[in-house]
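Q: Structure tokens for this one, please.
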Amino acid sequence: MPAVARDVRLSLLDRSRTRAGEPDSAALWHTIRRAKRAEELGYHRFWVAEHHAVPGIGSGAPTVLMAAVAAATERIRVGSGGVMLPNHQPLVVAEQIGVLAALHPGRVDLGVGRSLGFTAPVRRALRTDGTDTFREDLDELRAYLDGTAPVTVRPRLDAPVPLFVLATGKGLAVAGDLGLPVVVGGPVLDDTPAGGEALADYRDRAGDRAYLVVSLDVLVGDPDLALPEAWALAAARTTGEFPPLEPPDPTRPLSGRQRATVDAALRRTIVGDEETVAARLDALVARTGADELLVSSSTFDRSALAESDARLAALLTGTVGHRGS
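A: Here is the predicted structure, written as tokens:
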């Protein structure tokens, strides 16, 4: 069987994607079941996400879902991809993570990002005014976590919680200057001079503390498995609403703009049989120098997704595992 050659960790990011015809609760229970299976397969981390008032995503409370996932598993690291700092007070984030880390020592990660709500009504509901205070909020959060802030967070942490920055563009520079691990996805991963320069700049800034997590969609199986997510993205770009997943239908009529969005999403998705996926992952890891792959893919058919998770884990047999943080 082909295998990804470089020693790279393999993790999953599950966004609790809803499916057409199902209640939102089904997505949450599937996230927990998928986490238990990921642990059995040897994945390094299992992360959940934060999205507010999105029809296609069942959870807007990552720390609550992290607690459920951690309680249902025993060894796999559990984290957030991520907690969006503009939506939360850093003290509250530190307290929530502190409780999780106390209950599940050595297993909790904290990924943080700067994204605001998807629509203007959601941003108003979150009480965000668009002011960029990410660097200041990040510094404040780090002080709470490492015990150097004027206010002491309870419970006191016996060991540091690994902190990751979800970043594109400016966020890469912030993560590099702070020497923090970074999670990147999207256009920065394209084989372009700009993407390569951004990643190189991060490594220069972070020095020997650099740690690059590449987040992308990977599916081992029929290429049509990638269509439901691509269609949902096209719908979001044209209607402003990110919908639940629907079964793939290659004959589905699309506008020119929707077709362009679908085609772009499919180009960024690594999908196919083991040989195809291994070759594309090898090329990506060689180009980016990724230390870890955080696979964020989903599809309508849950059994096909479970099979993809298992086949992907088998591609990295001997390289995945629980090596520290």
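A few notes: The chain has a mean pLDDT of 91. The first helix runs from residue 24 to 41.
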